[in-house]
Amino acid sequence: MKILAIESSCDETAAAVTEERRVLSSVVATQIEEHRLYGGVVPEIASRRHVESISQVLKEALDQAGVTLREIDAVAVTFAPGLIGALLVGVNFAKGLAFSLQKPLVPVHHLRSHIAANYITHPELEPPFLCLLVSGGNTVLVEVRDYTGFRILGGTKDDAAGECFDKAARAMGLAYPGGVTLDRIATTADHQKYPLPFPHVSTGEYDFSFSGLKTAVMNLINRSAMKNEALDIPVLCATLRQRVCDILIEKTLLAAKHTGCQRIAVAGGVSANSELRRRMTEECRKRGLSLYYPDLCYCGDNAAMVGVQGYYEFLSGNIADSSLNAFATMNIDYR
Predict the structure, then answer these.
(1) Bridge partners of 320?
(2) How far is CA 304 from the centre of its chain?
(3) What is the crossing angle of helices 233-259 and 274-287, to 10°?
(4) Among 77-86, 100-109, 121-130, 199-208, whose mean pLDDT is lowest?
(5) Between the CA of residue 216 and those of 194, 211, 213, what are the distances in Å?
(6) Which pLDDT does position 203 carry in this prediction?
(7) pTM of structure
């Protein structure tokens, strides 16, 4: 079954052709250079660039796959969550395309598709397993019961881990995208030099909190500026990165222990973080747990993962009509 997939939830315009878990093509048009001027994504600009890029990206995806629109069996599209204006571009384009081709329209949740990125890299991976979804907009621990069945174990009560990285990096004056730059220049952590808190959350043992950590970094930066003291930015980056990874890994391993899950997947943009990959691999090896990561090219937003998840959504009967709308927020376990 060939699926044409469209992704436009933030600042990447993407299209792909997939066949079950196999990627026939994947094209991503990034807006990083433009948003770098502002230090972050500007929603209105992102929406306009999606409108300008989506037709060409779609054509490139079809050409790469060597298929025509008439050979497509279904159209899958990210409909939630994300920037509402950006999502609407992809959703409305997909609706018109599915209607004109008389093909099924498959709505795909953005976080579900990030989990599905692991299916591309690891053909042997099947539910059930535990997944840490960690990105600039979301940090959530999910029990993946089957391909379209999910149970949320915990999530962030304020900032996402990626948001903490990005905002702290911006305060340090690092280039956008901040989290990527922070990971690249980080050297050796030193909590004696830069003491950072380990936030605890009273709402649930698998919940996260990163706003206090972000604030602590900003306070360090402000105090240094007032005292006219130079900051060792690579060390501060490493210290923050270590603390965020401490929190993510502790909660994930605790959930694995309590649920009895022997397989752990990590997904989302922050799954590309080098420290998280290294330490999670080490900790899982110590405990005899199987660990799965997507290839780096599938960690960020892309349409290939949308197509793969779209296949399973289609099999489950999740088909939309022309009334499909976009939603800025929606839990992964929606029904």
Answers:
(1) 105
(2) 13
(3) 30
(4) 199-208
(5) 10, 9, 5
(6) 86
(7) 0.95
